[in-house]
């Protein structure tokens, strides 16, 4: 597929914004997926190509959070395992499932997350000093992490919200550390889904690489913002992004 200068600039800009949004909250793919489809890509090809940017931005954010000492590694294995399994399952489903189920799934996720932040904010933003739990202590976290992996492997958009519900809600990480683990989980299960999409020859690499270049810059900036911003401000940014995600889901065709 030919990439015009206009399309290239659009991909760079939306990738930059998505890198910030995905690192701090979630839902950046609500920008990048339409940008890819504007170029004439079918939904399933855009969905697959989008993962190139997600992998690169997640790797950038993981390195940044690790450098600032915000990435906890003690329970990483048990956290990652169910998301990897879920990622393969979700990607396999995305390769064959009808695209018309994506919109209601995305909208339901966004609205549920917004409701949780309003009605029970402590579930997504534990108070400072709250004791972190291990996966082995909370069987429900396995369920949530597997669901997040399946959802992320299937559609990607909005998966950060599902991961935050598991990491902050079930395991009680504060929002900064939950965000750090979220991008690590996103990196791992997106790599898993990328393998499936490569095998199915669904990725257009040039648009994917251009998009990824924008996400790298956005993710780098967002890590610095996440370290400095207050937990309360981060929580409300998360809420605003859920509303934007809901609007994008309702307006999408």
Q: Indicate the percent of residues in helices.
A: over 70%
Pick out the low-confidence regions.
Answer: none
| Share in β-strands | under 5%
Structural class: mainly alpha
Biggest sheet features: none
The coarse overall form would be: globular
* Overall residue-averaged pLDDT value: 82
By DSSP (H or I, 4+ residues per run), the number of helices equals: 10
Helix-strand pattern, N to C? HHHHHHHHHH
Count of all domains: 1
Quick one: how many beta strands? 0
First-last Cα distance: 23 Å
Q: Radius of gyration from the CA trace?
A: 17 Å
List the helices and strands and how they pair.
Layout: H1 5-24, H2 29-38, H3 43-67, H4 76-96, H5 102-119, H6 139-154, H7 159-170, H8 175-199, H9 205-228, H10 231-251
Membrane topology: Multi-pass membrane protein
Keywords: Cell membrane, Membrane, Transmembrane, Transmembrane helix, Transport
Subcellular location: Cell membrane
